[in-house]
C-alpha cells in the first residue's frame, strides 16, 4: 500500500510540476471545517507567518543567496501542505495576502468521488459512480440507484471505494473514462441479508443496514436492488478516500496515548454532538458538554457515560417533526417511518475525536416503564453498537403535543478502547 501511495503522489507531483503557474496551483486545500490531527495553528501565529511570506515574496523577485525562499519559487504542493495546518479564520485571511494564496485557499478541484464495485460469484465486476451526494454537518451521504442493477442472487460482495483522477488538470473537469486511483473504504457481503439487519419497510421496499454505515434497499416484490446509500463520517474521510489502495483500506497512524490521564478520576470533560437527519431534514442537532463518568461505573467491559438522565425532565429533548428516512430511485420515492441517519461525534477531554460514526438507525417499540408519567404514550428505543462502544436512546411519544421526546441517552464506551487511548489500566 505504501508503494501505491508513493506512485499516486509521484503522479500528482509530476502534474503539479507541469502545470505550475505564477498565480495558481492544483488540488484542493484540505478543509478545516472537519476534524484535524493536532492542535492546529493559532490565528496570530498563522497570520504572522503569512505576512512574513508575503514580505519575502515582494522582496525576492528571483532566487538569490540572501533570500533563497520566495512565493514564486515554492512548489504549490508545499504551500498546500502549509495551508492544511491553518484553522478556518486564518485560512480565510490567507486568501487576502496575495493572488496566489487566494487561488490556493479557494481551489476546490480535487476530483474526489465514490464508487461501489459489485462483484459477482463468477468474478465479474460492476463499477457504479454515485448518483447523489449530500454533505451534512458531520457526515457525507452518498446514493446509488438506477435501472441496470445486476441480479442480487449472482452477487457476492460490495466494495465501497473513494476514487481520484491519476492525472490532474485544474483547467479541465476530470473525465470518468480516465485512469482513477481506488481507495477501499469498506467491504460488505451481499450473499445473505439476515432479518436482524432489516430496519424498516414501506409498501415498496425493505431497507437493510450493513455495518459500517451502509443502507441497502430491496424491492419487496422482486427482492432485487433498488438503491444503495453510504453514510460516511467526516473524521479521516479524506485520508480513507484517497490514501488506501484497491485491495486494502487506509490504515490510521499509530495512536500515541495521553499518559497524563489519572485513572482514579475516571473520564471527564467529554463533549458529544448528535445529529438525526434524512433527506436534508434534521430531527435532532444537539451538543452536550462536560460529560463525565466515574471509575465505579465500569461494568462488563464498558464505561457508562450518561448524557441525558431519565429522571431529570430538564434534560429531555424533543425531536423536530415526524421521523422518517427518505429514499428515491429514478422511478419511485418514499419515506420509511421511524428510521433516520444518526451522526455521532464524541470528543475526549483534549478535544480529540474519540468515537465517531454515521449510521442508519431505527426507533423500535419498547415496553413503557412502570414509573413513567401517566401522560406518556408509546415508548421507543434506538440502539447502535460497534467496536468502540454502544449507544442506547429511549424516547416517548407525547400524545398531547404529537412529538417524540428523548428521555434517556447513555453511551457505553469500550474499556479496551479507553485503555488503548489513554494508556490506562481500567
Automatic annotation (TrEMBL):
Record GO cellular component, one term: SCF ubiquitin ligase complex
SUPFAM superfamilies to which the protein is assigned, alphabetical: F-box domain
Record domain F-box: where: 68-117
InterPro entries: F-box-like_dom_sf (IPR036047), F-box_dom (IPR001810)
Keyword terms, alphabetized: Signal
Classification via SMART domains: FBOX
Record has Signal as a keyword: yes
Cleavable signal peptide: 1-28
Keyword field contains Signal: yes
Annotated protein name in UniProt: F-box protein 15
Lineage per the UniProt record: Eukaryota, Metazoa, Chordata, Craniata, Vertebrata
